[in-house]
Amino acid sequence: MGIVSEARDIWANSRRNSILIASPAENQKPMAAKECVEEGVRAGLKAAAIACVASAVPTLIAVRTIPWAKANLNYTGQALVISAASIATYFITVDKTILECARRNAQYDRRA
Question: Which top-level group of life is the source organism from (predicted)?
């Protein structure tokens, strides 16, 4: 086609077929990060399930027994209370778990 398109193709192929080989430590870092995220999601889901039950039971009991809650919390309000507790617990737990895992990996890297 032309000099410009040929140069672009050569540059693109040279970037894909680089002569530099990544070290095993560099390959291990993305895998460790992925494991940290997966561990965080698992812990977050467990904590959110527990928080859902722990917030649903008192909310539903309160709506049936306390006059103020009976008058002011409709089904949407009840769902918002329960889901807000579950969502907050999920994100806090995921964040803490990923940070803890990252610290463990950083300490492991320093020893090596």
Answer: Eukaryota
pTM recorded for the entire structure: 0.71
Which residue's structure tokens are 């918002």?
80
Structure token pair of residue 30 = 């993305």
Cβ atoms within 10 Å, residue 90: 21
Distance CA 88, CA 94 (A): 10
Tokens (6 digits) for 31: 């895998």
- 70 by Cβ neighbours in 10 Å (0-12 / 13-18 / 19+) ranks as exposed
Highest mean pLDDT among 14-18, 19-23, 89-93: 89-93
